């Protein structure tokens, strides 16, 4: 069982967050802190939102949305300080700015506040992929692609590959589709659930996820491992990049900061206590490699034989 953060501290924080006024205050504080950090380092968070809000996004969403999709219950909750979770325009408009802000402090001890932290994190993940994959993937699925930042980065790393991005939020996908048209990048966007994609069996030689699993309950995570195994051809790989529960940063995190973090991440305890190696092997994969790629993140790569 992973002890980061400690079970006592975690229970204390969960108790505080069960009190709605305190939870709302923690979410407000977490959000305010991110916006201020972003704008301090030159990311115009509020101006970006204003610019996005002037576009007709409903027509963009209509192009990409599956009106028959049934959202899983776990997805219909508050995420990242948004009461409507990932199913709203504000979350989609702010996603890129938030990623730059959150990842700007990953290497704080050496870089300080670094607007390039997001790119550095993605590159660290792709370096591990390129080192461990035995062959260049030609058909890649990005699960939980959100607004497409991870999808476009995969396309730059593997420019000859056919890329598909899948997400549950039509709001995020509307931004992703707009960005791909803007940048003249060919991506197939799919509005669907990662645990039941509806995509063809053995259609891909790399299934990748970037910072998705800490947002999932354990039953959804294990279902996604099974679906990824179904989607992959023999000899191909499933890869994920996410928070590293064994990092000393989480073990030593002050309760106040942990409260802010957990107020925006409802399934964090389930992610921290998931035995990811065993869950992947239960889904049919070989024992995965787990590689720390930042002071608080890891890459996990599993082969389907």
Task: Please specify the SSE layout and strand pairing.
Layout lengths: L6 H11 L2 H21 L4 H9 L3 H8 L24 H14 L5 H4 L5 H16 L6 E5 L5 H9 L4 E6 L2 H13 L5 E4 L12 E7 L7 H14 E12 L4 H4 L3 H10 L3 H5 L3 H7 L6 E6 L2 E8 L1
Parallel strand pairs: 1-2, 1-4, 2-3, 4-5
Antiparallel strand pairs: 5-7, 6-7
Helix pairs in contact: 1-12, 2-5, 2-12, 3-5, 4-9
Description:
With 305 residues, the chain is of the alpha/beta class. It has one domain: Vaccinia Virus protein VP39 (Rossmann fold, 3-Layer(aba) Sandwich). Helices cover 48% and strands 16% of the residues. The chain has helices spanning 7-17, 20-40, 45-53, 57-64, 89-102, 108-111, 117-132, 149-157, 170-182, 218-231, 248-251, 255-264, 268-272, 276-282, and strands spanning 139-143, 162-167, 188-191, 204-210, 232-243, 289-294, 297-304. Strands 3-2-1-4-5-7-6 form a seven-stranded mixed beta sheet.
Work out the helix count: 14
Name the strands of the widest sheet in spatial order: 3-2-1-4-5-7-6
> Which ranges are low-confidence, i.e. pLDDT below 50, for 5 or more consecutive residues?
none
Topology order in helix (H) and strand (E) letters: HHHHHHHEHEHEEHEHHHHEE
Identify the CATH architecture.
3-Layer(aba) Sandwich
Top-tier CATH class: Alpha Beta
Q: CA-to-CA gap between the ends?
A: 28 Å
How would you sum up the major sheet?
7 strands, mixed
